[in-house]
């Protein structure tokens, strides 16, 4: 102890030790080394670099009674799958009609190769969406509306906020709701805080073709089903494929600004 009561270094030296080369080292000195924090930092960086980034997920979620919307959905997946780093997944929403009613409506059986989405909570795993549905008096079919109505927990937690989404539709006639079915659905996205992504006129000359009947608008791809027997034209399918590719590109751009 010094006079002021503070600690003072001891004057006693620890004995020197001799290295293999005969040089003396002071026991107080430590060999130079990389600081522990820096070493940990390097290890973390190397570890992160070793883990490849996951593919972005585009969920194509739809309801289709007679297969027209499903046809568009399949072509959309083809378009989306051409964008590197993005993987598209097809899902159906649950059916709300009984088998007896569907039989009376002459609806064909559903293709089991496309799974039904397990739970609304599954949407949180996606980075972007394309929602497809037929029209019912100018707005989405009840089956799709019932599915959106079941997303209350996602809405409460705003789990889908900021994620991009688009629409594609099917109508019975040319004036049956190709545009209104899409824009009345925007309210679903607004309440979730999602970003509506229309295709505009990015399809180019195909949007201006007048030599054949064609569904689809700047809001998204579309098909005219007529009485249910008309199949989608190649132009309608090409527009759907373009929308899938376009949306996958948007998803990628938003994820990697």
UniProtKB/TrEMBL annotation:
Q: Name one GO molecular function term.
A: NAD(P)H dehydrogenase (quinone) activity
The cross-references to Pfam families, in alphabetical order and at most eight, read:
FMN_red
Q: List its EC numbers.
A: 1.6.5.2
According to the lineage, what is the superkingdom? Eukaryota
Q: Reaction catalysed? A: a quinone + NADPH + H(+) = a quinol + NADP(+); a quinone + NADH + H(+) = a quinol + NAD(+)
Needed cofactors, names only, are:
FMN
Keywords for the protein's UniProt record, in alphabetical order? Oxidoreductase
Query: Do the record's keywords include Oxidoreductase?
Result: yes
Gene3D superfamilies reported for this sequence: 3.40.50.360
Please give the residue ranges the record annotates as the region Disordered. Answer: 1-34
Flavodoxin-like domain residues are: 58-247
Into which family does the record put it? Answer: Belongs to the WrbA family.
Spell out the protein name for this chain.
Answer: NAD(P)H dehydrogenase (quinone)
Q: Which classification does the entry list for the species?
A: Eukaryota, Viridiplantae, Streptophyta, Embryophyta, Tracheophyta
